[in-house]
Design brief:
The protein is an alpha/beta fold. The chain is built from 15 helices and eleven strands. The strands form two sheets. It has a nine-stranded mixed beta sheet. A two-stranded antiparallel sheet has the order 1-2. Residues about 550-555 have low confidence and may be disordered.
């Protein structure tokens, strides 16, 4: 037994390790802050200025590399914090157990040596000449107690040695060479792997994170954490934090951007071999994530209402079609929030087009509320597997049926509930829009469970909403709105198998005026179509059309 270890553990002071952890935590937080400032004050404005050409490409690569270095520094530092705090706590617990064992030995009159060896007290002068003294019942009891105390001391020393060895292995993975090795890609992905390996080195089970079934419970859990713990969770477990409905939009955005950077870096550093993807699929996924990152980078600006918040990301979902949720403007602080659920053929690769529609809706809402200084956030919500049916084959949506809308309904309900939770005491006027088959999902979500909790439900170019009357959407029919262009081919699918045609007067609700053409013109600049949607978002009545009924409205 090492006398050195026994003496060291008896004198151990966890304060030094916790102080070191605090210094590393400050470094991690400082790197995060610097990265955010770099994005919003340097990279973002330059991209918004439309700087192009060879020099621009080189500069943006260098700027991106700077941000990546800060990101790596942040995550690796957070892993050091986790290691130091974990070792300090385990060593302190081992020390407590050791001191308790020594105290117990002293109470029983046992003698603990400088190396932690427990000895029986020497026989008294009168006992030394007594041949039965060494085997007396009292002496036997002390012998048994000595074995018990020695076992406790040995266990405490073994725990301390294990904690020290685990910390040494974990810290050995985290060194500055990750920033100096001569390669272009793979650093961010290696950082994510380092975090997983550090957790294994420390013998840590997966930390508790809510299962994302109750936004209120997730929000309460997050608020219970200290700021230091919150920072650690985002840095070390971004994939799990970024998906939690009910958490602040800024937190989810921060976590999901980290996931995006790590996944994209892994794709750039690797190849299709062993990935389960074909070469074309691998390349497509890489290009898709690159485009998403570029779109986010272009909006990294100090203009608050145009800032993008990445609220959800899963590039592997739905066979590679992907899941992505992006807000333009912070929904947590907005006076008016709109959620747009896209329709047929939408994948993560369609994010650019969806952001254009989001921007058009936001601008229309701003014009409708001009002079009020009210904030508007519009969210593109692709949290389901949209059908791959082109509008030219609209009747085939009847074959698709309501399965995909039903599968995504609970996720949409949970998202709108989480939006309300994150807004706290500042609830916004909430509108949920669906376009095309997205209206089918909106209908299924609104009709099920406790509904969407929306102030307005809007069906644009709907083939059916899984219900037959507006009141079945658990909303006052006067706050249900629908619109469809006269030449929109989606009308061929309306009323077949996805529910009653919402444009027909019998459905109930109100029909806003549409003056655009086709299936994708509803957001044309200057059109009544987009202007009316903007008015709905801010709670103002749009221009409407008379509702023509064949049978009297009312419940079936």
């Amino acid at each position: 037994m090492s006398s050195n270890l026994f003496e060291l553990l008896m004198r151990f002071d966890p304060t030094s390790l916790h102080d070191a952890a605090k210094a590393w935590r400050d470094l991690s937080n400082g790197a995060q802050s610097a990265e955010n400032r770099h994005r919003s004050q340097v990279n973002g404005p330059l991209r918004q200025a439309k700087w192009e050409g060879e020099d621009a490409q080189k500069a943006f690569f260098a700027l991106g590399r700077n941000e990546q270095i800060l990101e790596i520094l942040r995550v690796e530092s957070a892993a050091v914090v986790l290691t130091l705090d974990t070792v300090a706590e385990r060593m302190h617990q081992a020390q407590t157990n050791l001191k308790n064992a020594v105290h117990r030995a002293e109470e029983w009159g046992l003698v603990v040596g400088a190396d932690g060896t427990v000895n029986l007290p020497p026989l008294g002068e009168g006992e030394r000449n007594d041949p039965d003294a060494a085997s007396s019942p009292e002496r036997k009891k002390l012998t048994t107690l000595r074995g018990d105390v020695q076992e406790r001391i040995n266990k405490a020393l073994a725990d301390a040695r294990q904690a020290s060895d685990q910390g040494d292995r974990a810290l050995g993975r985290l060194d500055a060479s990750i920033l100096t090795r001569p390669r272009v890609f793979g650093f961010a992905a290696e950082t994510a792997a380092d975090v997983r390996d550090v957790a294994k080195d420390l013998g840590l089970a997966d930390p508790y994170v809510p299962d994302n079934k109750d936004p209120k419970a997730s929000a309460d859990w997050w608020k219970y954490l200290t700021p230091e713990q919150q920072s650690t969770y985002v840095a070390l477990y971004p994939e799990r934090i970024g998906q939690l409905d009910g958490l602040p939009a800024t937190v989810r955005d921060e976590a999901n951007r980290l996931v995006l950077d790590q996944q994209l870096d892994e794709l750039k550093a690797g190849n299709a071999r062993g990935s389960g993807l074909t070469a074309d699929e691998y390349s497509t996924r890489e290009q898709t994530l690159m485009k998403l990152k570029e779109q986010l980078d272009q909006h990294d600006t100090a203009v608050e209402d145009k800032r993008l918040f990445l609220l959800g990301l899963d590039a592997k979902a739905y066979g590679g079609d992907g899941k992505v949720i992006v807000a333009m403007g912070n929904p947590d602080t907005a006076d008016h929030t709109a959620v747009l659920v896209p329709g047929t053929g939408t994948t993560i690769d369609s994010t650019g087009g969806q952001l254009a529609r989001v921007s058009d809706l936001q601008e229309a809402a701003r014009q409708a509320s001009k002079g009020t200084n009210q904030k508007v956030s519009v969210i593109s919500w692709l949290g389901y597997d949209a059908p791959e049916v082109p509008i030219q084959q609209a009747p085939n949506l009847a074959v698709v049926g309501t399965t995909r809308s039903s599968d995504g309904a609970e996720a949409l309900r949970q998202f709108t509930q989480g939006t309300r939770v994150a807004q706290g005491d500042h609830p916004s006027h909430l509108s949920v829009f669906g376009h095309s088959y997205g209206t089918t999902l909106v209908g299924a979500a609104a009709a099920g469970g406790e509904g969407l909790g929306a102030d307005e439900i809007v069906a644009v170019a709907s083939p059916g909403m899984t219900v037959d009357r507006a009141h079945q959407l658990q909303i006052d029919p006067s706050h249900f709105w629908t619109g469809r262009a006269e030449d929109d081919g989606i009308a061929l699918a309306a009323g077949l198998s996805l529910g009653f045609d919402p444009v027909r007067g019998e459905f109930g609700g109100q029909q806003f005026e549409v003056d655009t053409s086709g299936h994708s013109g509803y957001w044309d600049d200057g059109s009544k179509s987009v202007d009316n949607q903007g008015r709905i978002i801010v709670g103002k009545p749009p221009t409407t059309l008379p509702r023509l009924t064949v049978t009297p409205p009312g419940p079936l």
